[in-house]
């Protein structure tokens, strides 16, 4: 894992000391809120509906057990005993008091964490495949690249006042688990015909008000050219980006307005100028970073305990079938810990649960944890022989829900239960859907199905790329939920299509049930997943199920 | 004809704790909507808003929120204000227990 250098530690300590003084000056009245607000946002501190909220960066979703334990400590000491893991692989504390925040930041710095650049018009926390360094399908670990980008972008003088926020995601696998096509820049690690490592560079993706699937701006960028090329992209947008209209300021609009060919030409021109200025320091840095992410020394052991539990214990078997993924090392697995117990708040973990997960990582998981953008926790490296013990410990902590990728593994943003920007709630909708399908005992019959819920058009809940997307709106003072179908967050990314008029809070769960029933009756076999059935049969049967025949006839007429 | 002025309360978030507060008749901040001064005159509401907004060492984000008022006191007319009054729906971490 990457460790702070003395420079990093001093930088964070200085920022924290500055912020402590700024908080004091705000409280004693020498700073107004207008002066203070940009300062607190630079340090990840928001004011939400009921309280302040501190957003802490978890770079590329990677945590050590000591860091997870410190998050538990912070949750207990200064919050209400829990934390909320987000779709940006961050953690949010929902109830800090202003006076305590400098202490919370110091506590984070003790474990090499901070909240810098989790807000504002800067390059945000770089996200990566949560299976990085572990996945069987991986070409290379994307995290050294993510760390290189993090170091280059943090406090980069040219990029502190961008037209808008800027998000970069990196994946090292052909199977895209990092939603690279919905980021300002998505990087896919590839190899060219000569076998040399490089990147496919995707720009202009994004969700929100105007969802766009990113476009390939460079098929193959040699690895050594990464930073000058990224700098070229960001600086082209920094000049062209619409600062006059915040709805048009993201790079997706710039790409849309100018066209990908024009953007490509400008980027290449700028890149040609910048390239010589990068004299190899970046490559030295990259070489220094890489060993921090060296894979652990995987042990070769007998998997008999796993095989035995798998054949004898149906609860374990169900969990193993659902929550484990293929690992690159023999005898190992990637285990996902669901933070989606039926009826619970998606992405929330109590301090006790955080400590259980930290202990398991330390004891069985080479001291590593990951946060997925799907708001679950991952033990990326575990030996199969240890899985029965891991499962038992998770079960005792209420963390053994066997639902990864299933209908109750719902992404939900905080919505109007917390978020000041929300137009409707999302958490209760997620809770009700999960509870309902658990009652119906249909979850495993339905199979892979991603529901994603956002409480406003900003789309933090990724609803556009959910197989079923739900968007909460305010329609004349009443919560109303719009449904989209057919979204896809993977390498075959697609934006979902709207079914039609939205549903009230009371109607939305029955509406989702009708969609699922339609899928079950339309699928050609139990092997055909929801998204494949939708692609084959199209919107019509789902529309009919939602709105009845008459609506269809009216539309056809 | 000018639009009819719907009753309003002045609300904000407390600077130190961040929680929702309402302006009372004697210009203190209360955590409870029931204590809020219901403003029925537009000119009066605007002046009270300007004065309250100036109290930046106590509160953040001062604004007027619509309410309906009867003998039992003010009630939020929009669901957002109802949630602000009660707290989140997933945990009893807000004011739920105190309100009812
Ligand atoms: S989607 Fe909207 S409601 Fe949900 S967290 Fe983002 S800004 Fe808030």
TrEMBL record, chain A:
Signal peptide: none annotated. Keywords: 4Fe-4S, Iron, Iron-sulfur, Metal-binding, Oxidoreductase. Its cofactor is [4Fe-4S] cluster; siroheme. InterPro entries: NiRdtase/SiRdtase_haem-b_fer, Nit/Sulf_reduc_fer-like_dom_sf, NO2/SO3_Rdtase_4Fe4S_dom, NO2/SO3_Rdtase_4Fe4S_prot, NO2/SO3_Rdtase_4Fe4S_sf. GO terms for molecular function: 4 iron, 4 sulfur cluster binding; heme binding; metal ion binding; sulfite reductase (ferredoxin) activity; sulfite reductase activity. GO terms for biological process: sulfate assimilation. The keyword Ligase does not apply. It holds the Pfam family NIR_SIR_ferr. SUPFAM superfamilies: Nitrite and sulphite reductase 4Fe-4S domain-like, Nitrite/Sulfite reductase N-terminal domain-like. GO terms for cellular component: sulfite reductase complex (NADPH). Residues 119-271, 408-549 form the Nitrite/sulphite reductase 4Fe-4S domain. Residues 52-111, 346-397 form the Nitrite/Sulfite reductase ferredoxin-like domain. PANTHER family: SULFITE REDUCTASE [NADPH] SUBUNIT BETA, SULFITE REDUCTASE [NADPH] SUBUNIT BETA-RELATED. This is Sulfite reductase.
TrEMBL record, chain B:
It holds the Pfam family DUF2849. This is Sulfite reductase. The lineage of its organism: Bacteria, Pseudomonadati, Pseudomonadota, Alphaproteobacteria, Rhodobacterales.
């Amino acid at each position: 894992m990457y460790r702070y250098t003395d420079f990093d530690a001093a930088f964070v300590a200085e920022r924290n000391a500055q912020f402590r003084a700024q908080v004091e000056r705000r409280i004693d009245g020498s700073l107004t809120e207008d002066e203070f607000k940009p300062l607190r946002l630079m340090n990840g501190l928001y004011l939400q509906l009921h309280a302040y909220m501190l957003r802490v960066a978890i770079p590329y979703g990677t945590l050590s057990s000591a860091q997870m334990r410190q998050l538990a400590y912070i949750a207990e000491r200064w919050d209400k005993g829990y934390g909320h893991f987000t779709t940006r692989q961050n953690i949010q504390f929902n109830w800090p008091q202003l006076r305590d925040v400098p202490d919370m930041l110091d506590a984070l710095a003790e474990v090499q964490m901070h909240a810098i650049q989790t807000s504002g018009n800067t390059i945000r926390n770089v996200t990566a495949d949560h299976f990085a360094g572990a996945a069987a399908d991986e070409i290379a670990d994307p995290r050294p690249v993510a760390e290189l980008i993090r170091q280059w972008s943090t406090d980069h003088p040219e990029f502190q006042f961008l037209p808008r926020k800027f998000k970069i995601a990196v994946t090292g696998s052909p199977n895209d688990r990092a939603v690279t096509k919905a980021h300002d820049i998505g990087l896919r690690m590839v190899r060219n015909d000569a076998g040399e490592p490089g990147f496919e560079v995707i720009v202009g993706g994004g969700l929100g008000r105007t969802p766009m699937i990113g476009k390939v701006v460079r098929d193959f960028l040699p690895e050594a050219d990464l930073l000058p090329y990224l700098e070229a992209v960001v600086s082209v947008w920094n000049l062209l980006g619409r600062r006059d209209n915040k709805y048009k300021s993201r790079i997706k609009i710039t790409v849309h307005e100018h066209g990908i060919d024009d953007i490509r030409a400008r980027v290449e021109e700028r890149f040609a100028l910048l390239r010589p200025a990068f004299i190899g320091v970046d490559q030295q840095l990259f070489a220094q970073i890489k060993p921090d992410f060296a894979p652990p020394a995987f042990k070769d052991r007998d998997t008999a305990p796993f095989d035995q539990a798998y054949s004898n214990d149906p609860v374990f078997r169900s969990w193993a079938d659902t929550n484990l993924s293929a690992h690159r090392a023999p005898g190992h697995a990637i285990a996902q810990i669901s933070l989606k117990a039926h009826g619970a708040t998606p992405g929330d973990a109590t301090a006790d649960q955080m400590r259980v997960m930290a202990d398991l990582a330390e004891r069985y998981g080479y001291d590593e944890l990951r946060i997925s953008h799907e708001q679950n926790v991952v033990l990326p490296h575990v030996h199969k022989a240890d899985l029965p013990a891991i499962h038992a410990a998770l079960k005792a902590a209420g963390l053994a829900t066997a639902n990864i990728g299933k209908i109750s593994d719902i992404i939900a943003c905080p919505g109007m239960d917390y978020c000041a920007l929300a137009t409707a709630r999302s958490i209760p909708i997620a809770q009700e859907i999960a509870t309902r399908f658990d009652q119906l005992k249909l979850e495993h019959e339905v199979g892979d199905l991603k529901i994603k819920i956002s409480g406003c058009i900003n789309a933090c809940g990724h609803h556009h790329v959910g197989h079923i997307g739900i968007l909460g709106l305010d329609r004349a003072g009443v919560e109303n939920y719009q449904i989209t179908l057919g979204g896809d967050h993977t390498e075959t990314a697609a934006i979902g299509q709207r079914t039609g008029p939205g549903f009230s809070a009371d109607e939305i769960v029955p509406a989702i049930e009708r969609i699922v029933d339609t899928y079950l009756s339309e699928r050609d076999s139990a092997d055909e997943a929801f998204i494949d059935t939708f692609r084959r049969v199209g919107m019509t049967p789902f529309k009919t199920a939602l709105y009845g025949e008459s609506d269809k006839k009216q539309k056809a007429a | 004809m000018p639009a009819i002025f719907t009753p309003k309360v002045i609300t904000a978030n407390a600077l130190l704790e961040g929680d929702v507060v309402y302006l009372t008749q004697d210009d203190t901040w209360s955590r409870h909507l029931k204590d809020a001064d219901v403003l029925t005159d537009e000119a009066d509401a605007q002046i009270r808003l300007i004065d309250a907004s100036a109290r930046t060492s106590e509160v953040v984000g001062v604004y007027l929120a619509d309410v309906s008022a009867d003998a039992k006191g003010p009630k939020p007319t929009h669901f957002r204000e109802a949630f602000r009054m009660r707290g989140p729906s997933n945990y009893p971490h807000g004011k739920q227990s105190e309100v009812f």
